[in-house]
Design brief:
This protein is α/β, with parallel strands linked by helices. The chain has one domain (8-189, 229-254): NAD(P)-binding Rossmann-like Domain (Rossmann fold). The protein is built from eight helices and seven strands, in the order βαβαβαβαβαβαααβ. The chain has a seven-stranded parallel β-sheet, sandwiched between helices. Helix 1 crosses helix 8 (230-241), helix 4 (105-130) runs parallel beside helix 5 and helix 6 crosses helix 7. The longest helix has 26 residues, at 105-130. Bound molecules: NADP nicotinamide-adenine-dinucleotide phosphate. Residues 12-13, 15-19, 37-39, 42, 62-65, 90-93, 114, 140, 142, 187, 189-190, 192-195 line the site of NADP nicotinamide-adenine-dinucleotide phosphate.
């Protein structure tokens, strides 16, 4: 139960879903964790749950698209626990389901900002913070960074961008002699508010289907016969964060119940 002993993690979007589950698991495995989110109350609740269970956690409000806030959350984390050695760029939003020909430019820019620009900023400031002592950066992409999906143009573009940006940053760290590994994770559909409140309600609104029918249709796309759980993504993040992944950099870890194997 100490696979992350002596490590300090920062997880964005940790007030909900995958990010919250990553924070809980990383703390159980011995890391001190800084949880950040746009929703300050939600992230404070998750952090206090972790500390009640004996873990070390702080919560910080952060909008991941504001560069100055990256400098501030990294400094506050360092002050609380020491140098950051794990960064999980997880915060993200779903697309609104519009096809490209109907999509408002502002909507495109919003999704690209939250889902891609944020990862650029996280990598930029994460590398600066870790380059003297090393660490692991994990960028949460998606199966939508590998295969296309009608109505997800901005999200596909952002998540595909995260996939390749990850490889570039991994190569740059290696070339510069920094002991920083950088990898992306590609979840299939996971039962979190992003899917249950976002994707499903949009699909149900657009078509003739009920939310239950949309969930059933999504489930059927996974050969394993079900959607994933946030804990199953957290387990993969834990591996990449730990020293067990010491020779793993620039890779894309697909955790999708076989979705992209077909
Ligand atoms: P979630 O439950 O909606 O959690 C995402 C969190 O990110 C929310 O707490 C949200 O806060 C926060 N957030 C949104 N915009 C932000 C911003 N500008 N700055 C800081 N925090 C912000 O979603 P999730 O499913 O756990 O998604 C986590 C990541 O996994 C995302 O990058 C998503 O694209 C990716 N992913 C999810 C799935 C899936 O099926 N669930 C599949 C593949 C990849 P608010 O609630 O206040 O907006």
């Amino acid at each position: 139960m100490a696979r992350l002993k002596n490590k300090v993690g920062l997880i964005t979007g940790a007030g909900s879903g995958i990010g919250a589950e990553c924070a809980r698991l990383m703390a159980r495995e011995g890391a001190a964790v800084a949880l950040t989110d746009l929703d300050a109350d939600a992230v404070a609740r998750v952090a206090s749950e972790i500390t009640s269970d004996g873990g070390r956690a702080i919560s910080l409000a952060q909008d991941v698209v504001v560069e100055a806030q990256w400098e501030s959350v990294l400094a506050q984390t360092r002050e609380a626990f020491g140098e950051v050695s794990i960064l999980v760029n997880n915060a993200g939003i779903a697309p609104n389901g519009e096809h490209v020909e109907e999509m408002d430019f502002e909507e495109w820019r919003h999704v690209i900002a939250v889902d891609l620009d944020s990862v650029f900023l996280g990598c930029k400031h994460g590398v600066r913070a870790m380059k003297t002592h090393g660490g692991s950066i994990i960028n949460v992409s998606s199966i939508m960074g590998i295969v296309g999906n009608p109505g997800s143009g901005s999200y596909n573009a952002a998540k595909g961008g995260v996939r390749l940006l990850t490889k570039v940053v991994a190569l740059e760290c290696a070339q510069n002699g920094y002991a920083i590994r950088v990898n992306s994770i590609h979840p299939g559909y996971i039962k979190t508010p992003l899917v249950t409140d976002g994707v499903v309600s949009i699909a149900a609104r657009e078509g003739e289907q009920t939310p239950e029918e949309v969930l059933e249709m999504i489930t059927l796309r996974h050969p394993i016969g079900r959607m994933g759980q946030a804990s199953e993504i957290a387990n993969a993040v834990l591996f990449l964060a730990s020293d067990e992944a010491s020779f793993v950099t620039g890779t894309e870890l697909v955790v999708d119940g076989g979705y992209t194997a077909q």
